[in-house]
Design brief:
D-Maltodextrin-Binding Protein, domain 2, globular, 12 strands, 318 residues, three-stranded antiparallel β-sheet, Arc Repressor Mutant, subunit A, alpha/beta
Length: 318
Amino acid sequence: MDLDLRHLRMVCAIAETGSVTKAAARLGLSQPAITSQLHKFEELVGGDLFVRTRSGAEPTALGRQVVSRARIVLHEIDALVDDLQANSAATGELRVGANHFSCAASIVDRVGDLVPEREVSLHIEPSSALLADGLSHGWLDVAMMGMLEGSEIAMHAPVTTRTLVTRYPIFVALSAAHALAGRDSVRLEELAAERWISPPGADDGSLASLRAACRAAGFEPDIRYDAPSGAGRHLVAAGHGIRLVDPAWPPPDGTVALPLTGEPQMARLVMAWRRDRVNGGAAGVIYQGLAKAFLDHVDDNPAFRQWWDGHPETHPVL
């Protein structure tokens, strides 16, 4: 069997989704087809690339090496295609969208430093689905967005994507006075009696994902409040409710943000852009800026820094 790009895209998709089934759905293939391709690829490289776990599929040491190299190759191929499709970069304002991440200000600084010929504007939107719509309809050029595992958002030409962070856990925010606030992590089932704030971007599947995770833990969540974006922090600090949060978000005064034991909620971070507004060379530069903006804030939550240091396979390719 000869190695080709579809095999590289396949192993990257499995690594990014954490599941052969989810990777098959992303690539538009049947599960038997992708399983067969994986087995043939493993025969070619001489070892297992993934091991099955309770949560899906995790790369082996060989798998991590292959995925890391595959991402570099695919990025270069995509950049070549972009450059052929757009021989010169668009000029003028660079309209960037992002979820409510702690690195918002760093996005403006980092991207602006790398593309000084374009003025960077930033639109903050809790919903990744709405950011995708903004790209599709042409009022955004680039977006940095999180996608929950199992809730992928379809992108259509001329929009394309590149993964920034392959997997990261979702944390839970509690009042600093909460009985569990001093713990290193919290089991989801320990939160069965809590009042919840609806997660931002519910149309992305985040609310459905929360309900599914809670049901798997043996309870139905009491979704008591709807507070878009960061508006729920005062409710959390006052002890009125808890909410899922981005792990790098620095806990506001009166709150803590803790990992969930067993990582029942995982997401990936992607950069999406319009090829007719950002060519391959510019996309690579902007990717560097977004990745560095994210890395600027890994230390904002020490619990996330600890997780991050233990999972180098998830890091951006710089």
